């Protein structure tokens, strides 16, 4: 196929021309958040310039514009993840709120004492803590599906854990620390065979992989707009319509009611029932623009290019003496975690930052998976389709220099040698 037009694509992202510490910004922290194309920035601006209103279509002209823009964004999300109907799309603040919503509505309603919730060892804290909280409230048990040394979920162990008490399986589609793509379609079939529902945390998946919630038969699929080149403060809860119908509301307030008296309230149907109060209208519209933008490039092209970047990176990093990768699963997106012998992760992060290179160092809000590999923190460059091989090479050059500097330092100061 044609080479990926990375230089043209880069011009769509104004922030990529930013200077940081006197250097060209090299943004390799895409798993934390992605940068925004002008199309998204301009769409939000357009909304505030020409459409801003609260959403109650009938009231006046701007209300109609705002309502239409908001509902159009919902339809774009619906098509993007291949949901059956926009009524299955609930706008929330992000992945975290979506999971808390499911835990506190569906979870609270269905979980009985001794019921079991399964999460995997590679979950983000957002897919652990809400389940711990709801387990405590309902006396359900939280169990952990183990992963192997490559950072892949152990399906045989998962199969053994499934039983009639299993009510919910909550698993990431892609790990934010290791980049592992989990066998989520198969895990869904296995959960359903045991009568359990599945919630898929798609926060790290939607920007790298084509997602089809209907084909894969997920019950719940959640993600954040800001990791998909969209704004912060907007995210998506997809749930099958029949599940949403049965779920009690999350928060009470305006926008979600059919009729209120002091004696009782009738709620609207989904998705309105779950969108109490004035929502993040402008950023939902911005998310719609982000989806348009991603689709204009094409997920297939994005996948292929990012994979070639990943291979290039792993090869280049591999040459650094004393570097150990975390996460070597065969199915992997462009999230890379490593440590380097003798260099603290903070030191690596600071040295890179001085050169304008942004990577994440720390526990990445996923302490259990790091501890599975005997670590508290790692260095995590994560790539997007606007990154280049030259940027990766620059990162590797800085790391090699740092590593060499360390050697020189030890040679000159032998009493600092640690064995
Ligand atoms: N799950 C995963 C796998 C993530 O990577 C993240 C973001 N780091 C989250 C959940 C939480 O997303 P947010 O902070 O946008 O709610």
From TrEMBL:
Start and end residues of each Aminotransferase class V domain: 26-394
NCBIfam families: sufS (TIGR01979)
A GO BP annotation: cysteine metabolic process
Source lineage: Bacteria, Bacillati, Bacillota, Clostridia, Peptostreptococcales
Keyword terms of this UniProt record: Pyridoxal phosphate, Transferase
Function: Catalyzes the removal of elemental sulfur and selenium atoms from L-cysteine, L-cystine, L-selenocysteine, and L-selenocystine to produce L-alanine.
Protein's name according to its UniProt entry: Cysteine desulfurase
Cell wall biogenesis/degradation found in the keyword field: no
Similarity comment: Belongs to the class-V pyridoxal-phosphate-dependent aminotransferase family. Csd subfamily.
E.C. number(s) listed in UniProt: 2.8.1.7
Source organism, top-level taxon: Bacteria
GO MF entry, a single one: pyridoxal phosphate binding
Signal peptide: none
Annotated SUPFAM superfamilies: PLP-dependent transferases
Catalytic activity: (sulfur carrier)-H + L-cysteine = (sulfur carrier)-SH + L-alanine
Native source organism of the sequence: Sinanaerobacter chloroacetimidivorans
Cofactor: pyridoxal 5'-phosphate
Matching Gene3D superfamilies: Aspartate Aminotransferase, domain 1, Type I PLP-dependent aspartate aminotransferase-like (Major domain)
